[in-house]
């Protein structure tokens, strides 16, 4: 059996950078993994790519309502 590829976790560009980040994500086709950046050794959440896209779309809509 082949070894699992190393995941590349990333944080939002909106993360504070001073220990205030709380969520990281990694693309592991066909899903997206989400974890708490403060405790990366703990279990992570796995969501479908379409659920992740819907989540991001919802955030984008919320942000645009706050700006206008």
List its salient traits.
68 residues; single chain; four-stranded antiparallel β-sheet; alpha+beta
With strands numbered from the N-terminus, the spatial order across the biggest sheet is: 1-2-3-4
Which sequence of SSEs, written as H and E, runs from N to C?
EEEEH
Mean pLDDT: 81
> What proportion of the residues form beta strands (DSSP E)?
25-35%
| Radius of gyration, CA atoms, in whole angstroms | 14 Å
Q: Could you estimate the helical fraction of the residues in percent? A: 25-40%
The end-to-end distance, rounded to whole angstroms, is 53 Å
Shape: flat
What's the layout of helices and strands?
Blueprint: E1 10-11, E2 23-28, E3 31-36, E4 45-48, H1 49-67
Antiparallel strand pairs: 1-2, 2-3, 3-4
Give a structural overview.
The protein has one helix at residues 49-67, and strands spanning 10-11, 23-28, 31-36, 45-48. With 68 residues, the protein is an alpha+beta fold. The longest helix has 19 residues, at 49-67. The chain is flat, with a radius of gyration of 14 Å. 28% of the residues lie in helices and 26% in strands. The protein has a four-stranded antiparallel sheet with strand order 1-2-3-4. The mean pLDDT is 81.
Quick structural overview:
By secondary structure, the chain is α+β, with helices and mostly antiparallel strands. The chain has one helix at residues 49-67, and strands at residues 10-11, 23-28, 31-36, 45-48. A four-stranded antiparallel sheet has the order 1-2-3-4.
